[in-house]
Amino acid sequence: MRKLIRIIQANNLFMKIFLVMVISIIAVSLSITYSSIRMSSNLFIDTFSITNSKIMNQITERFNSFTDSIVSASLEVDTNGTIKQLLQEEQENAIDKSIFYYHMTREMDRIYAEVDPNDANMIIMSNNQDIFNMKYVKWQVDGEKLANHEMIDRVEASPNDIVYQFEESEVTNGVPMIIASKALKLRSDYIYGYLFFSLTERDLKKFYESYTGAGNNVMLVSPSGQIISSNQEKMIGESSPELLDYAKSFEDKNLEYRRVDIFGQNYILLSEYIPSLDIYLVNLIDQEIIAENVIDTSEIVLISIVIVSLAVLVAFLILRKMTVSISQLVHQISDMARYQFNKPLKETGGYETRKIAKAFNYMLNELQDYVQILMNTQEKQRKAELETLQHQINPHFIYNTLASIKFMIRQEKKEKAADTIDSFIALIQNSLSNIEETITVEQELANLKNYVQINQARYGDRIQVNYLVAPDCLHLYLPKLVIQPFIENAFFHAFTKKKTGFIQILVAQKENSLICEIIDNGDGMIPERLDNKTIKSKEKRQLFSGIGVKNVHERIQLLYGKDYGVEIESEPAKGTKVKIKLPVREL
């Protein structure tokens, strides 16, 4: 998990830009895909509706042609003198009955052959309930049932018209069919027979069946809202006032097509009223099924996915190429925060990255020159301060030392006085030499011993100093006056409360570094007096040279870098430990 977080953080710029581009590409692709599918569907529906409007006209022409043939056949029968005479005569015996049937059948065959009313069956019924049926297999009608059926009442109510009606009752033997009825009457309005043309729903379907298909349905709706024919057989005979209202709206509003929600689905609805049959021809188009059959949505989606994938891949490669060089540039700049200011940036990558690196390197060179000048100035100033401090030997120290020597001479301690004078002379000579000079550990120890001998001559042996120096360190070199300020500080500040104690000086090599430790068991210091590994003290009146602990730390880092310097640990009433870390240097 942490590794993943580090990878994300390292590629933060790339991830942000790439995420924005991916979201944008997907959003645009989805919008275009949706818009394409929607526009294609609408365009297809519009085109399909126009095509179906023409088909509706063709179906209407078929029905009109059918009704024209019915009208022609009715006129032929109505004006045929032979049929009119035969239907009005009474047949007294079987021979007359046979002649009657013979002539009636012959005349009907002739008229039927001339008019050819498609698949419609022609039937004539006399007042005596005699049935003359052209296609008995189409309608096995019983004369008595027909004469007593309510359709005879409808015909007699409109004796001058051809009455169209849908029947699916006992008289049609349960077979759904459209029956065109006409009363045969004289001028005196005497009805001498009845003419029927029947067309079964199966035959009626032939008028429009070739134009239907999956999702493209045709229905014939009566003025009462009953569906009398449809390619959806389960809907035949059902009543739908809602469908009738939609069909009638086309007469009122002159619509080309209409989107409707009916039978629990969304349809495109077209309608045409056929006056001759007094029915509504309705075309219901299931737009979802039609669109699925014509518009391959899965293919469009697949193409969109492929395009998005290619776009994302190209965006990934381009962005990766652009951001890798920028990320590398950022990493190089980040490394500079870890004191690698002298390392120039690599001028690689794209044009923009190279320009940034070039400008940054130029700025870095200028900054390094300025920093170098500043450091040289500060180093000179620091050296001048150290030299000044070094040459300003505390007059109190000189006065006290000389007073101690005078006191020893008066006590006739000539040898001790002589040793003190020798230590004092060596100490002064060392302090007046070049501050930049490095000396060996052995020489630094000799100077320390001279300083300790002078202090012990003045104050006695209440503070013992022990030296633990590894033999392999004696020849190593270190800057002058590195250890002495801490000895001075221990002598004059570590034993104010405690009057006796010890100071231990340890010098050894550890992990390729020269380690010098000054440890005392004196008063110690509270944490407030420690700041950044240096002692916050302004008391210098008793010091020999006036070189503070902070100056030693800064001087070491100035000479050798941030890996070296002074560390101080102290605890009240327990003592103080000073650790000086220096590089191992040999001439």
Word description of this protein:
- The chain is of the alpha+beta class.
- Helices cover 52% and strands 20% of the residues.
- It contains 16 helices and 19 strands.
- The strands form 5 sheets. A 5-stranded antiparallel β-sheet has the order 2-1-5-4-3, sandwiched between helices.
- Strand 1 and strand 2 form a beta hairpin.
- Helix 12 runs antiparallel to helix 13 and helix 13 packs across helix 14.
- The chain is rod-shaped and about 195 Å long.
- The two termini are 52 Å apart.
SSE order and pairing:
Blueprint: H1 2-10, H2 12-79, H3 81-88, H4 94-115, E1 121-126, E2 131-133, H5 143-147, H6 150-157, E3 163-167, E4 177-185, E5 191-200, H7 201-205, E6 216-221, E7 227-230, H8 241-253, E8 258-262, E9 265-274, E10 279-286, H9 287-294, H10 297-336, H11 351-391, H12 395-410, H13 414-432, E11 438-440, H14 441-459, E12 463-469, E13 477-479, H15 484-493, E14 501-510, E15 513-520, E16 530-531, E17 534-535, H16 549-560, E18 565-571, E19 575-583
Parallel strand pairs: 12-14
Antiparallel strand pairs: 1-2, 1-5, 3-4, 4-5, 6-7, 6-10, 8-9, 9-10, 11-13, 14-15, 15-19, 16-17, 18-19
Brief overview:
Helices cover 52% and strands 20% of the residues.
